[in-house]
Design a protein that fits this description.
By secondary structure, the chain is α+β, with helices and mostly antiparallel strands. The protein contains 9 helices and 12 strands. The relative contact order is 0.19. The structure holds glycine.
Length: 307
């Protein structure tokens, strides 16, 4: 009997259009998505857990400097990298999250350790990195996360007369959602946040219920975009609530929440799966790096809105 599974991933939403993205950046984005999808799909194909699949897919994207998570994260106004991540298991509603970590190679692995090995859900700053060291999570020097392109992007923003953070979120967050052969769903999200962020700003990605949520009774959701509006709407939990309590389809819930996001001035997108195996996405930006595969379908990889 074929094990049934579905995996959906994203590498961020934003203003990507065929005429603005270079062929090299287009190819790098698609290659990164393909590698991440393959890592997660291999686990699900072997009968592995959705939780392991979403972590594996996100770790690949965290190592890929084409995406704004882990290595290749955007810079704060002070020229540092501060990573946020979360993971959630829909079977038991277990969750772990970290914010502002600077010396952990895979922030999503650290979030998983918080979930599995601590009595807490959310750790922040140097303490979170220290927790990782105490629990065998791989460290990395802060310089390992930094790339010349992210430095250039910060310099560009700081040079503007009205220097502020990059509210377009052109260099987006990564995430994965999956349902495994046992019908369990999981979600994971990881990000460097916004270029030029300051004052310890944290977005939606590591906030359980805002940028990340998974519930076997409803769906798994990972978000990308303007984090402040996602937080105000509690987007990831709200999608799950409308599925669980109002009987909406994941497609209707995702489309409606993205519409409501837009009504508050927010830009971005979501990926979703349901325990019955359906999966998809919704976004209100010109593009979103995204990919999906199921037990009986080939990888589907896209960047632009009209693909
Ligand atoms: N959505 C990622 C952030 O706002 O930090």
């Amino acid at each position: 009997m074929t094990t049934q599974w579905t995996l959906v991933i994203h590498g961020g939403s934003g203003s990507m259009r065929p005429e603005t993205l270079s062929p090299a950046d287009d190819a790098a984005g698609r290659a990164g998505l393909a590698a991440a999808l393959a890592a997660g799909a291999a686990i699900l194909r072997d009968g592995g857990a959705a939780l392991d699949a979403v972590q594996a897919a996100v770790e690949v994207l965290e190592d890929d400097p084409a995406f704004n998570a882990g290595r290749g994260s955007v810079f704060t106004a002070e020229g540092r990298v501060e990573c946020d991540a979360a993971i959630m298991d829909g079977a038991a509603l277990d969750a772990g999250a970290v914010a502002g970590v600077r010396t952990t190679r895979h922030p999503v692995a650290l979030a998983r350790a918080v979930m599995a090995d601590s009595p807490h859900v959310f750790l922040a700053g140097a303490g979170a990195d220290q927790f990782g060291r105490a629990h065998g999570i791989e460290a990395a020097d802060p310089a390992w996360f930094e790339t010349p392109e992210r430095r250039r992007q910060l310099d560009e923003i700081l040079a503007r007369p009205d220097a502020a953070f990059d509210s377009d979120m052109k260099y987006g967050t990564v995430g994965a959602v999956a349902v495994d052969g046992d019908g369990h769903v999981a979600a994971a999200t990881s990000t460097g946040g916004l270029t030029g962020k300051k004052w310890g700003r944290v977005g939606d990605s590591p906030l359980i219920g805002a940028g990340t949520y998974a519930d076997d009774r409803a769906a798994a959701v990972s978000c990308t975009g303007a984090g402040e509006v996602f937080i105000r709407l509690g987007v990831a939990h709200e999608i799950c609530a409308r599925v669980r309590l109002a009987g909406w389809s994941i497609e209707d819930a995702a489309d409606t929440l993205v519409d409501e996001l837009g009504e508050l001035g927010g830009k971005g997108g979501v990926i979703v799966v349901s325990p019955d195996g359906s999966g998809g996405w919704a976004f209100n930006t010109p593009g979103m790096y995204r990919a999906m595969q199921t037990h009986d379908s080939a990888p589907e990889i896209a960047i632009y809105g009209d693909e």
